[in-house]
Amino acid sequence: MVLIAATVCTKSGKALVSRQFVEMTKARIEGLLAAFPKLMTGGRQHTFVETESVRYVYQPLDKLYMLLITTKASNILEDLETLRLFSRVVPEYCTQLTEAEVLNQAFNLLFAFDEIVALGYRESVNLAQVRSFVEMDSHEEKIYQAVRQTQEREAANRMRERAKELQRERLEAAKRGAPPRSQMSFGSGFGSSSMSSSASIEPVAEKVPSTPARDTRPAGRSAMKLGSRGTDTESFVSRLRSEGDAVPAAAAPATDHAKPPPSDHKDVHLRFEERLSLVAGRDGDVQNFELSGLLTLRISNEQFARIHVHVDNKDTRPLQLQTHPNVDKEAFRSSGVIGLKQSQRAFPLHSDVGVLKWRLNANDDKLAPLSVNCWPSEGAGGGCDINIEYELEHDHLTLNDVNIHIPLPSGNTQVVVHQWEGSYAQKGRTLIWSIPIINKQQKSGSLEFTVAPAVPNDFFPLTVMWTSDTSLALLKAVKVTQAEDNSPVDFSQEISFHPDKYEIV
Questions:
Q1: Per-residue DSSP letters for 263-307?
Q2: Which regions are flagged for Basic and acidic residues bias (predicted)?
Q3: What angle is formed at CA 350 by the lines to CA 344 and CA 353, rounded to 5 degrees?
Q4: How many C-beta neighbours within 10 Å does residue 46 have?
């Protein structure tokens, strides 16, 4: 094995973070680390020192040392190259090269060390790749978080229903003159409903959140329940406290009042929301593309509770469309009409109801809404000349507040910008290029700058963010009509399209 261990230690030899790459006893490693300060006596200015069994390759980091312990048979040139990469990784995660900061970032440093060396041998990676690998999302963690949020939401719904039941019992006991029941255990049952709140639309609602629904219907009215949402945990706890024994038994029941809609929202309001996750290569090839969308309906007037929403789908791409289980699928497939299967039922009032979701998964290079081309080239003096250009690929889109985040190399680097569109700002080790609007009339632009010292891989991955009131999928609500007589209904709509992840790697 070539590389035995990598350590960040003080000049007195105290190991702050140490990663062992070969099978060796703890006592042996501690003995090797303890011997290092003794070999540094005499004011050595070299970058390595050897003993009878191992070689110490080191580099000062202010008041610390980046130390590699290797076998004597290893290639010293490769060891020095590996040491330089380790020395660049430490400032990447530690804003200050102090003992406290190194200990605080210990896990990130260990993860980065594991990306550089595997089983004692150097991996063919650079700093940008190490940064990208450490920051990668965990699919298992996402699943765990989704399951946990679902469990918390269901528990909050059960507790809310039980709290309402307790409040009704208190009021009935107060009317009869009997003392309220203060000792009640929370059950696990839900209140009866014509439709379960955990409908199949829920997974998309998890990705495309909407405004929490508040039910304002009278207690005796029977209506179906679409895409219900629970209040958050803090507000629910405060409500439980307010319903405790300290509240007088004759207190009036609390009623939910619907939050008044914004002034530009009409009695029937539609919201199209799309989210995009895209990873593209440096040559423009799309490695991962996932578009998800949700259409929600909000009705604020009871006379419009039975309506049909007419949706026009002009998208020729393989969109996967799915309606809510209580929506008439045949009517939507044949004529693009979103309406309830049972005409005698009505949509709920004052709540955001998910009625249609869509998804597009593909690796087609033509699907990317915005192409970003980054050309770093090595210049004289160890620096890099970087040319970045963008171009809007779909003319029907308008992207606002576009920000392109460009990573910069760590250390003392000098950035000189020669040409740009919009504006730019440097924040730490990131150059943020901002473009106010990109549309059909202003669909392309470029940025040129020079950084020294640097290598081309330092400027990846690029991250792009924007907001937009246009959608990538060509879905549009053309009209809304009454279910009984097909008379037109005035409605408002809003569109939101933004990226969850948009990277050029």
A1: TT--SEEEEEEEEEEEEE-TTS-EEEEEEEEEEEEEE-SGGGSSE
A2: 256-266
A3: 70
A4: 10
- Same-domain status, 69 and 149: no
- Residue 488 is given by DSSP the state B
Is residue 306 within 8 A of residue 347, CB to CB? The reply is: yes
Task: Look at residues 97, 93, 100 and name the one whose alpha carbon lies nearest to residue 127.
Answer: 93
Contact 365, 391 (CB under 8 A): no
Q: Beta partners for 426?
A: 431
358 and 329 within one domain: yes
C-beta separation of 152 from 234 below 8 A: no
Look up the CATH number of the domain holding residue 109.
3.30.450.60
Query: Residue 505 falls within a domain, yes or no?
Result: no
Q: Which residues contact 254 (CB under 8 A, 6 or more apart)?
A: 167, 239, 242, 243
Question: Distance (Å, rounded) from C-alpha 131 to C-alpha 429?
Answer: 12
222 pLDDT more than 60:
no
Q: How far is CA 271 from CA 209, 226, 354, 387, in A?
A: 12, 16, 9, 38
Based on the fold, state whether residues 7 and 117 are members of the same structural domain: yes
CA atoms within 13 A on the CB side of 15: 19
CA distance 241 to 365: 55
Q: Tell whether 76 and 116 lie within a shared domain.
A: yes
- Asked whether residue 186 is assigned to any structural domain, the reply reads no
Cα 159 to Cα 210, 214, 240, 244, 351, distances in angstroms: 21, 16, 9, 14, 20
Verify cis geometry, omega within 30 degrees of 0, for the bond prior to 461: yes
Domain count, the chain: 4
Q: What is the DSSP string of 14-49?
A: -EEEEEE-S---HHHHHHHHHHHHHHTTTT---SEE
- Answer yes or no: do 352 and 400 share one domain: no
For 429-482, write each residue's pLDDT tens digit.
899 999 999 999 999 999 999 998 888 888 899 999 999 999 999 899 999 999
Tell me how far apart the alpha carbons of residues 119 and 20 are, in angstroms, rounded to a whole number: 9
Do residues 498 and 465 touch, judged by C-beta distance below 8 A?
Answer: yes
Structural domain of 217: 140-181+191-242
**pTM summary value:** 0.51
Flag whether 254 is in a domain: no
Domain boundary among 96, 119, 134: 134
**Residue 258 included in any domain:** no
CB 90 within 8 A of CB 131: no
Query: Tokens 């929600």 belong to which residue?
Result: 296
Q: 284 and 220 share a domain?
A: no
Distance between CA atoms of 33 and 7, rounded to whole angstroms?
9
Domain shared by 287 and 409, yes or no: no
Q: Which residues contact 241 (CB under 8 A, 6 or more apart)?
A: none
